[in-house]
């Protein structure tokens, strides 16, 4: 269970099959640097181009197509004291009739205060003089190489993960990705210091990070990304429209509740019908992201370990 | 500020212009009975037909087209000790390929325990033997008569409210509806003892209620329903696909932040970009429902009262 | 088989249950006047209000819920020499990013030349000096009263018909509507002198008409509107997004091919897979309209008459 | 203007940047072989794997990012006498409630009769004993390498073309693709002997072909694929839902009418409003395809050549 300190020198704008930057053992931890969505690093130097340049790919020994990669997010530490966002709201979240009067896109700088653990507009807008939401670091874009020789833009997302921009991909969360190539080929980047649901200004607070993740191979097969926080389990669907993303996430949750919690379709529906929560990861990127989430307090793992062990 | 105890004898399956069941003054409170989605009352007698038979309409003196009706939900008390749901999951939330193997729809009875304030399947499914989520009463369908002589089925929802099935329409919440006819003509019913996001089994726990609401007329104009809880403000969009419902809700929130909180489009986007939450009311009915929600801790009302007073 | 000449004095902005304007026998023909989408009649007097004021409702003796109303469009004669449209394109058909630069909506007058059977802008735009497409009259909005006491705006459409804006609802076509109330209660109006697919400027060439239709009751049940031209049969779905409208239309066609043409699901798919055509009626109204169309040359009616007779 | 006879030995399941199979001059013609969607060649040998293995990529001298590749489809000759389809209808075109009763997917063989120029099921279904639609060859999947190092599955489509399954990509048509890499890197394959709108059984009649195309580089920039037949011009949008595909196609047509035909947004809307036609290429693949089509009889090219010349 080694810890590797990796300093990237190349970045990728697609998740695909490429020469690994580092080979690690199953269960190892990686501490590495990520740059922001526009390619700016900790020194505010632009070292790569848009969109969402990725650090990676990391080759995990023993990972085979059909397996699952579990990525435990140990730590996300901003590596500079500013980030940036756009204003105003993205066109995808507005009634078409409201678009004509909408102001043009601008870029804004936020200060990231690691002591107070809050973020704040460098030039506050009128009415937001005291607005300083908490620092809530998250990973915007991460995942593994997709199947079939595809190379998918880091602007979008699919079954292999990618640019999901979901705020629960945060420290303490374990994310699962379906593996399609030997070694999994894991990429990460596009960290946000904070972001509401939907990434509705087209960005979180985009900044560079030192990220620490632990990578484990599970000998089981999943269809869409899954995740677990201290409180919840969740599944992810990436598609347009939101309806389809929600269908992917819900169907994956149905599978999970059967595999690991012994609930058949009818029992799962009783549970989900009363306690399910849906989150909108992003409603901005080419593929939208919906999470289907259930509090773990409602769940009891199968004694036999379900299909998760092997 | 009188309180009226109204016992309905007729029910309605559309929200439209009909003879008022009761005329009340602006600010009065109504205590009334509602029956469940299939027309069953507190004595488990079927006294009306599907879908979602409504109690009402209540005529509020002084309400004029262009005004807003504020409905404060004082209390929702189940009036019998059982409710019912369907299983399995609704087809709208599944990948089409998963539908073929899906079991047929069944109806299930739940016990509503007002002492422990929890609900429980009468015949628990395997794996759910101890599943007893809290009693969380909510109104599934309520709203006012729509514009232009329309009469809209209580199966669906629109700008005038209707079958939104959003779990935050709960005791303590104030809901706002845009008024299109003199007197507003307010209807309510379809109470649920509990329901997760999305109403994804096609029902909440459907039961009869004694509901208590206070109705006030605001001399201001809104476009889509709005609401306020102890912690949050929210706006509602009703449409398909979910994307369009989300656009309606988000655009309405943008208007609200301008009117009452003095935030222009750019400032509002800074706030929403970092702290907005989206909830899925229902993803089952003909029109889906999305709520755009913001915690009040981030908001400061305009000193001048914005456009809310007059 | 009488022919009735009916001159309307009232108009309706919803399709619902209302006092019939005329009672006719099954098989009778009605010759009547319709006014344009904004309420302007043959004398260019505004005699009713938006949207799409309807002539009707006509009560057809013998029509019962569960039956089908066949409306043969005998003749559509413009009753004045001008019509109007909007420019530019509707927002529903544009990429959101293209909306900001889009010019504001304007109204334009077209001359309807019944001799040359063509239409022409009164003030031609640059580049369209010779643009004079043929007069192609069609009915924008027609249908029957919906079920369950609903009254649906003539701005939209549903299973009962309504504002479908499909250019094959033209002379020579027979349209079928599912009947939900005694007498069917048939409405018509919103004639267009011409219109492309999708009604993408938000209007056809809107004008007043003398319309002649023959109404027959079929003792059979359909779910969505159907139609037949000299060359084709077609089914209609009305919903958003277009995907759902297309699903409704396709599923209805599958039923029709089984009922009347003896094709099971597999055979129907062989036929449709090779020769089906989809038309976009409108992509502008609250509900979009898709037609699923098959040329009659590929079809052979069942010898036993299928389920159409009784 | 040479003609190259190219016999492929490798096939590709993604459109991406790969070693060219052949370098040709601007204006050259290529005669080559394509295999069917499942990888079966003219001898009914499976020589490559799904989905839609492509012949190519062809490097066109002088093609630069920002240019447009014009592909004139000279000839599509089936290279064997059978093709295959699936039944029944794809799940994407059915109401969800109709899926449960739907029969399972089967594969069927069709005979391709090059003399009568028709196709016919080898084992006709009941009611289709005489069903023999005309041979109407088309290209299901073709296009150029996408931007940014992406490699996109031949199951789907995007701005660079791909698996559009549009029946007007047929002999006599010229298709235009936006070029993103030096040499354009053109791929083609997935020929169909016949196909209705929407590819609604999930296939056309899939077979191997000898295809002949002429490739020219235009020094102009387009955003989405365009095409021209003897009668029409058309633009293509690829996305989900159909609404978004239609928006892409319509917006691209608006640009084209401005660039080449001198019509501003208002004039273009007058023309399109009356004569536009929408076709559904496919409503089956991950991205759906909509064509926006206008008959050339309504169009007059700008005297100055618009932006098409160089």
Automatic annotation (TrEMBL), chains A, B, C, D:
One of its GO terms (molecular function) is hydrolase activity, acting on carbon-nitrogen (but not peptide) bonds, in linear amides. InterPro entries: FmdA_AmdA. It holds the Pfam family FmdA_AmdA. It comes from the Bacteria. Gene3D superfamilies: 2.40.10.120, Acetamidase/Formamidase-like domains (2.60.120.580). PANTHER family: FORMAMIDASE C869.04-RELATED (PTHR31891:SF1). This is Acetamidase. It comes from Muricoccus nepalensis.
